[in-house]
Structure formats: structure tokens, C-alpha cells
Amino acid sequence: MSNVFVLGHQNPDTDSICSAISYAYLKNQLGMDAEPIRLGDLNNETLFALEKFSAAEPRLVKRVSEEVSQVILVDHNERQQSAEDIGDVQVIEVIDHHRIANFETTDPLYFRAEPVGCTATILLKLFKENEVEVPADMAGLMLSAILSDSLLFKSPTCTPQDVAAAKELAEIAGVDAAEYGLAMLKAGADLSNKTLEDLMSLDSKEFEAGDHRFEVAQVNAIDVNEVIGRQAELEVLMEQVIAKKELDLFTFVVTDILNNDSVAIVLGKKAGIIEGAFKASVVDNRVLLPGVVSRKKQIVPVITEALS
Amino acid sequence: MSNVFVLGHQNPDTDSICSAISYAYLKNQLGMDAEPIRLGDLNNETLFALEKFSAAEPRLVKRVSEEVSQVILVDHNERQQSAEDIGDVQVIEVIDHHRIANFETTDPLYFRAEPVGCTATILLKLFKENEVEVPADMAGLMLSAILSDSLLFKSPTCTPQDVAAAKELAEIAGVDAAEYGLAMLKAGADLSNKTLEDLMSLDSKEFEAGDHRFEVAQVNAIDVNEVIGRQAELEVLMEQVIAKKELDLFTFVVTDILNNDSVAIVLGKKAGIIEGAFKASVVDNRVLLPGVVSRKKQIVPVITEALS
Question: Which positions are annotated as binding Mn(2+) 1 (chains A, B) (predicted)?
Fold first, then answer.
């Protein structure tokens, strides 16, 4: 059994999974007995990346404190996005690229957050700082994380550092970043084998703003109407989540990865803030968000400010 | 007027001041218009260091938001230790070596915390990562910070990284670390020109644990009895602070920098936890803490756990 778990957020995306695997590899090279784990099911995009680079799926662990007393968080820091029993273990490191909130420790720790587009971009620096060579499979996984988080470098979260890191990693991995990236995103946007329940939880994150709780789910699609066409059924499921989690707002975002726009369905007693916050009309609980692809940079801060 | 302020914590110590100056220098070299500021009076130790390396005192600024909209925090992250109007500005970076608590942002930022003995040890890495040469005066200031925080490498917070950084910086600064460090600590421990009010606020920090608020003040001394001999007068002042800040516990620590022990005066309605927490007898509101020199590592976590 390992001493330390390395974990990404709930409803894991490609960055959370690939960064957990790559950082656990780095820590193992440095002499720590670390194991990457996952807190939920893998999406089709991540499965595509793991298969391409022959990486094993991390083990699914629900309650980390039953196996370890120390963990490392990658790609998140907010406790409500982490393991359900995160309060029962010691967080010894965090590597992240999100805002910092709902995070507190008793002791000093290694906390490395940078305002870049992807955790893996920071990990590449850590490999270099620790003078550990990046093997081809790990390079492929980290590249996948950057291509995913940056939507092929088109997201406003993407920085020159992400582009440079991806270029370097693509060379080590021996793949063409643009070609591989599009294939990976398309695999992720293939929603044909997904139930509506799957879509709801595929990539959904909960946030707090002032006294309000809100959740933002995001689904990438080639054909947005494939999802929006089932709005009535989606709303029933969204209302169930709102009731269960006592949310004030649930925003379900469908992002067109070819045209880089999004459509969102908004429900909850605070849904009225959306029109003013995004300066866009909500018709039939639905709002068009031209040019919006980043939950982190274009959605969460806007909702947070409107609710605070 | 500068665009960005770089600031350490209230009741600044040598690390807070010297790291603010050194990091502002680095940011200026990288093209940012940054100014180091201070939130309070300088202690004798810091004055000694600034004079030795011909550095100007940072400007005293009480309300940062009246001059800038963005700040960088060094040597702290907890909001109650920062500028009183910290909530009105954007924190764009944090470089720190303390626990993380009471810190929250709306947007991603550069947050670099490492479990080392001194902020300046991390700063030396940042100079290197950014390929900026450390001039002799900045090296001297960073060295002073490390010698101060580590009590000449004798504090349990001191890591091999701090020792290595100090060695490198001493060479650049052209001083003998041991000899200079002892002179600097002695200058700081010269309490002859200090009033009791000065002693109370020289290096005092406020913390939260569960629903409780506590403060820990620390004074370095060559002759502990010089301070403890005035316990009755000190207690009157401590009670005033307790009432004003609604503290549950105030711990006033006097550290013998030659023998590396401490004596603490404890007051407040939660003072009863001290005996159990430190496994030591409190007699006449006073407790002997053999081998205890580090507030961060040997006092705050112990009180936090006992209060939580």
C-alpha cells in the first residue's frame, strides 16, 4: 500500500487524471511512495489519452483516510471538490492553477499555484527543477492535459507558457499536437454512449460565493443541439441536484469545441442574476454565450461577483 | 506612484521587510513597477540589517487600496495579518512559508508556499528561475532574513535548503554568516530602548482556530528576566489587548536566543488549555518551554489543535 495518494478533483477531467499520474511518477522518482488515484469515473477524452499513451487507469478511491494519512492535491484546492473525507488527512502538497478558496492547513506545506492554463504546465517545471527526465508516456499524458484544458490553445485561460510546454512535451511524446489534440477532443465530445445523468456529472464543480452555493457543469460537444435538444429532461435532473445539494444556482454549459461558443441552461432561485452578469438574454432558461469556453475564467468569476 | 505594493505582515520582522525589498527588486528587474512597503514599525534587528546593507526603509502604508489596486504578499497569507483593507485590492502573488488559512481569491494567482524556514530561501530560487542576478545588498538582506527566522540555523523550522541558501547569499554579500548573524540577533535582543507597549506589538500575530481567536507575541532576549521581571505590568497591557480584540487566549513568549528556550505568559479565558497542550505546568500565569523557539512550528500548531 502506498504512503501518499495523489488526487485530482471530483468528476475528474483529463488534467486531473493525467497530472495525478505524472506527479505521482515524479514523486516516486524522488523517493516518495506515491500512488495516483481518482475520485470518479473517467470521461471518453481521458480514456482516449490513457489508451494512446498506454497508461493504466488510476484506482478509484472514495474515502482516502481509510488507506493513507497524507495526500497531494493536483488541479484543485477547494475542499468541496476534493475527497469527501479530505478533512481527515494531511494535505502535504498542492499543485494547481485555480483560484484559492476553502483551503486551510495547520502546518506549512508545499503549495504551488500558478495562473497558467493547466496543472501539467507547472508539472513540467517541477520535473526540470528536480532534474528528473520526462519519459515519453508521461510527456504524452501531460500534453493531453494541456490540449484538453486549453481546448487546443483556444481557451482564454491558455498562456504562452502552456503553448511552450505543449510543444516541448509533443516532441518528447513523438506526436503531432494539433492532430492528436483534435482526435482527443472529438473522442471526448462523442456523447452517443452517455446518459443524461452521465452528462450532468461528467465535469461538474461546486462553488461558494458569499452565502450562496452554485454548481457549474460543462460538456464539450461537436453538435451542441444533440445536448440542448434534450433540455426538458435535463431540467428535471438539474432540479433534483439543486434540491439535493441545496444549490442557489445550477449552470449547465454546453461548449461547441469547433466554434468556441457555449450555450447554458440556468436553473435555481438565483438564476435571475445570469442576464445581468453575462449581459445576455435568458430565454426559456437558456442563454447563448458567444466566445465563452472557460468555466474558470469566463463563468465562475462572473457568477461569483454577481452573487457576492 | 508604483502599480503594485509588495508587503509583509503586520508587526513586521526581518523576513517580512527584507523579503519585501528583495522581491520588489526582482519584480522591477522583470519589468513590473513594484514598491516594497511596510505595515508597521521596524524592530532593532531589522534596522541593524538595513543599515549594514545600506538599504532604505520601506515606506509605511496603512491603507494600501488608496494607492494601488494590486498587491503581492510575502511572508504571510492570512488576511488578519495583512493590510487592514486587503479585501479591497487584488492579491496577484503570494510568496510564503507559513500554513495557509483565511485566504481566498476570485481568480487564479501565483501562490508559492514552501515548508522552509524563511521566505528569502524561496526568493533565492525565484531569482534563479528568472535568471536575475542577486546583487550584494539584496543578498545581504535575504541572508539577514534567513539568519533571523532560523535563529542562526538553530530553530526547528530551519531546513537544509535554508542553510544552503544562507551559505550562497553570505558569499555574494561578502560577510561571515555566523559572526554577522549573532551581531544582528543581539541588536534585536537589545530591549533597553523599548517600552512595554513596544514589546507587546514588536512581533505579534493573531490566529483563528475553530471559533476561537488567539494571539502569540514573541520577543527575543539575551536576558529573559529583563522582560519577565515586569510581568505584572505586562499582564495589564495583555488584558487590554484581549478585551480590545476579543481574544480567547494571549500568549506572550520570551525566547532566550543564546540558550534556545522560552518562557511564556498566558492569559485569556482559554489559558487553561496551555498545561495540557504543552505538557508543562503554568505557575503564576507563566510557563517554561524548554527547547521551544519557533512560534510557527512549536507554538501555533499546538495551540490550534488544543483549541479546535
Answer: 9, 13, 75
B133 shares a domain with B210: no
What does the alpha-carbon distance between residue B65 and residue A154 come to, in Å, rounded to a whole number? 34
Q: DSSP secondary-structure letter at A289?
A: E
Predicted structure pTM score: 0.88
Residues of chain B in contact with residue A112, where contact means CB-CB under 8 angstroms, are: 111-113
Q: Are A147 and A227 within one domain?
A: no
List all residues 6 or more positions away from B150 whose beta carbon is below 8 Å from its beta carbon: B117, B118, B157, B158, B162, B163, B166
Reading the block at residue A32, the C-alpha cell is: 516518495
For chain A, say whether B106 makes contact (Cβ under 8 Å). Answer: yes
Instruction: Show which of B164, B189, B214 is a domain's final residue.
Output: B189
Residue at a domain's end among B189, B212, B238: B189
Q: What stretch of H or E contains A95?
A: strand A90-96
The pLDDT tens digits of the residues spanning B89-137 come to 999 999 999 999 999 998 899 999 999 999 999 999 999 999 999 999 9
- What does each C-alpha distance from B218 to B16, B147, B198, B231 come to in angstroms? 15, 16, 12, 14
Structural domain boundaries, residue A251: 196-307
Count of domains in chain B?
Answer: 2
Chosen for mutation from B73, B99, B100, B161 (greatest number of chain A CBs closer than 10 Å) is B100
